[in-house]
Write a structure and sequence with these properties.
Layout lengths: L1 H12 L4 E5 L8 H14 L4 E5 L5 H5 L11 H4 L10 E2 L5 E4 L8 H4 L9 H12 L4 E5 L6 H9 L2 E7 L4 H17 L7 E10 L4 H14 L3 E7 L2 H5 L7 H4 L4 H17 L2
Parallel strand pairs: 1-5, 1-6, 2-4, 2-5, 6-7, 7-8
Antiparallel strand pairs: 3-4
Length: 272
């Protein structure tokens, strides 16, 4: 009887795997930097993390020191061949694994459009990972566009995390993102889809522009904006060339501290 009660207690404590898409249709806003470093900092906090590189540029893959190899991406899985679980690779960093990307994902935009459930191919692929319960969080690094791969990520995820660069065009990007998410909800593709939060990136405290943009975004979006602001730093820019997240490249840098704080905020919002 005691063993049965113990098993029941563990089932109650079990938390479903959360799937978060990191997305912004505009390039150069720190999207992949955020996906890689948030994944590594969540792992450093003791969570099991899967980084799913859905961007054909494969910068998240190289950013954690994994080689881009032909056939290693989720492309074949998305067209119905094989399992996403088979594509998961270890990284050099504890509790952090990855589904790598490579250039063959470029073909997915064309091929997925002709398949049944073409907007749910990523959701179908990710479901066995959810069911296995091996990971606390799956972070999907989306392409810098609102093409079919990003729409698939939105259909598959629980929530979207949006990095916004500290510039005046930032608000236009979040407005477009909101419209797309509302359309997916209204169409019944992902009725519970929501924005987990907006993180301001590339902040330069020496400039009035950065401060004004952050203030304006907070005024318009309120609590949707994370308290943590990611600074523009040389160390953050250098880390990908060494195949390391910032907390492994320079643990005591301001960029590392910022992403560690962001990871804590994300866990609080996810309630895990």
């Amino acid at each position: 009887m005691r063993l049965k009660r113990h098993r029941a207690f563990l089932l109650i404590l079990a938390v479903p795997t959360k799937v978060i898409a990191v997305a912004n249709q505009k390039g150069g806003v720190g999207k992949t930097t955020t996906a890689v470093n948030l994944a590594a900092c969540l792992a450093a906090l003791g969570k099991k993390i899967l980084l799913f590189d859905l961007d054909p540029q494969a910068n998240a893959t190289s950013g954690v020191g994994v080689e881009k190899c032909e056939g290693a991406s989720a492309y074949r899985v998305l067209i119905g061949e094989g399992s996403l679980v088979e594509k998961i690779k270890p990284t050099h960093f504890e509790r952090l694994e990855i589904v790598p990307s490579e250039v063959d994902l470029c073909a997915a935009d064309l091929e997925l459009a002709g398949l049944p459930d073409h907007l749910r191919r990523v959701a179908i692929a990710v479901q066995p990972v959810r069911d296995a319960g091996q990971f606390d969080v799956v972070l999907i690094d989306c392409p810098p566009s609102l093409g079919i791969l990003s729409l698939n990520a939105f259909a598959a995820c629980d929530q979207v995390l949006v990095p916004l660069q500290c510039e005046y065009y930032a608000l236009e990007g979040i407005s477009m993102m909101n419209r797309v998410l509302e359309q997916l909800k209204a169409a019944g593709i992902n009725p519970n889809l929501d924005i987990l939060g907006v993180v301001m990136t590339m902040f330069d405290g020496r400039t009035r522009l950065s401060q004004e943009v952050v203030g304006e975004v907070r005024q318009l979006l309120g609590t949707k904006v994370f308290d943590t602001v990611i600074p523009r730093t040389t160390r953050l820019a250098e880390a990908p060339s060494f195949g390391k997240p910032i907390n492994h490249y320079d643990k005591y840098s301001s960029g590392s501290a910022a992403y560690q704080l962001l990871a804590e905020e994300v866990l609080n919002r996810l309630e895990i």
